[in-house]
Design goal:
The structure holds two protein chains of two kinds. By secondary structure, chain A is of the alpha+beta class. Chain A has a domain of 56 residues: Roll (Ubiquitin-like (UB roll)). Helix content of chain A is 17%, strand content 23%. Chain A has two helices and three strands; from the N terminus they run ββαβα. Chain A is flat. The N and C termini of chain A lie far apart (43 Å). Chain B has a single domain, classed as Ferritin, CATH 1.20.1260.10. In chain B, 57% of the residues lie in helices and 0% in strands. Chain B has ten helices and no strands. The longest helix of chain B is centred in the N-terminal third of the chain and has 29 residues. The chains are: A alpha+beta, B mainly alpha. At the A-B interface, helix 1 of A face helix 1, helix 3 and helix 6 of B.
Chain lengths: 101, 295
């Protein structure tokens, strides 16, 4: 989206919304919305995605600022790790008194 | 940081509850839970009922006007925002009308009070009656209404009636958001293009005559010392907030004479603008056509 300032915008840009729920430690992507700027996006996110008491923290980010991996690159990106099960730390005995594992 | 501190930090972040379906929302609460609903000794019950009725009517009528905007707004996101605000106000109206029925001792419930009173029996201020001419008027009226109601309910959180205090305690959080939402739009439109500025200024001019009524002396409130708020005492806070928003929005404070009362009577005495009849016709028609209906 590289519209110049003097052009009339046909619609507001897209923002992606991330919520942290009461029990969640991390923000989770919940959807997207349209807004004129980031502050309005935050308000819209509150109105659209926390109506059922879901969240305690919101992040919004302009969709155009997200760099995503391409589906075409799926195999070179992800297939090489598919047979390397030893990368999971499942071959250790975890002592009973170690929390959060 | 010790391991214990680390653990405590995680615990406070997680806010563990019994309901593990966090994605659906948890931790709902009833604002009136555990509140004694008997009218406190020394409080004029009839005046308390009338006071709650008036505050409930403000929210009920304005909620209906906001609902009329849904499906007419420029963006889907704004529809949800306005519907949320209308629903907050409807919730306030329900609790206040219920309290009015309770205090009066007539046994009238919220539905009876909302649907089976005539125009002259409503006690809302006239600010909430007219339909907004455009989105600028919606933003301007919501700013004035929520700034005033937030100041009023801020006072009522210390009311001697525990039910009114609890209702106010819940409402101030909602109203703070409504005010923030409206202020944001007034600033965007006022400090936007030449056209949006002119329309926002015109909207304020249309609303302004209804402002003074919010701060008129109120005979009912005067009978409720320690329970009700003095309307005149709210003016400084509301003016401060509104002037700050208008300043940021590069808008001028409109002049012009206030809308006259009729024989010294206005909304709080049951004297309304013609707009209220249209709101009530729509609001009440189903309940009156099918009085025994349940849903």
């Amino acid at each position: 989206m590289d519209e110049s300032q003097d052009q009339v915008r046909s619609g507001w840009p897209l923002y992606e919304v991330f919520l942290r729920g009461k029990r969640g430690l991390n923000h989770v992507h919940v959807g997207s919305l349209h807004a004129a700027d980031a502050e309005m996006a935050l308000h819209h996110a509150r109105d659209l995605y926390t109506r059922r008491n879901e969240g305690v923290s919101i992040w919004v980010v302009a969709a155009r600022d997200i760099t995503a991996s391409s589906p075409d690159e799926k195999d070179p990106f992800f297939a090489p790790s598919g047979d390397k099960v030893y990368r999971h730390p499942t071959f250790y005995d975890i002592p009973a008194d170690v929390p959060h594992m | 940081m010790t391991d214990d501190d680390d653990f405590a930090a995680y615990q406070s972040l997680a806010e563990e509850t019994e309901d593990h379906r966090w994605a659906f929302g948890t931790g709902f609460s009833d604002p009136l839970e555990g509140i004694d609903t008997s009218v406190p000794v020394g409080v004029d019950a009839a005046a308390l009922a009338a006071y709650c009725l008036a505050l409930g009517d403000d929210a009920l009528i304005y909620s209906h006007r906001l609902q009329q905007w849904v499906t007419r707004l420029p963006e889907l996101e704004e529809e949800t925002a306005l519907a949320n605000i209308a629903l907050d106000l409807l919730g306030q109206a329900r609790m206040l009308l219920s309290r009015a029925g309770q205090a009066e001792g007539t046994g009238w419930d919220e539905d009876r009070l909302a649907f089976f009173r005539t125009e002259g029996e409503f006690r809302n201020v006239r600010l909430v009656e007219p339909a907004d001419a455009d989105f600028a008027e919606l933003a301007g009226r919501l700013l004035i209404f929520s700034a005033w109601r937030l100041a009023l309910f801020g006072e009522l959180t210390g009311s001697a009636d525990p039910v009114l205090a609890a209702i106010a305690g819940k409402a101030v959080k909602e109203l703070a958001y409504h005010r923030d939402y409206a202020a944001q739009w007034v600033i965007r439109l006022g400090d936007g293009t030449a056209l949006s500025h002119a329309r926002m200024q015109a909207a304020l001019a249309a609303i302004w005559p209804l402002l003074d009524e919010l701060f008129r002396a109120d005979a009912v409130a005067a009978r409720l010392p320690g329970v009700a708020a003095d309307p005149a005492g709210l003016r400084a806070e509301v003016d401060g907030v509104v002037d700050a928003v208008l300043g940021a929005a590069t808008l001028d404070r409109p002049g012009g004479a206030p809308l006259a009362s009729v024989g010294g009577q206005a909304g709080r005495e049951g004297v309304h603008t013609e707009a209220l009849g249209y709101v009530l016709a729509e609001l009440q028609s189903v309940a009156r056509a099918y009085p025994d209906a349940t849903w």
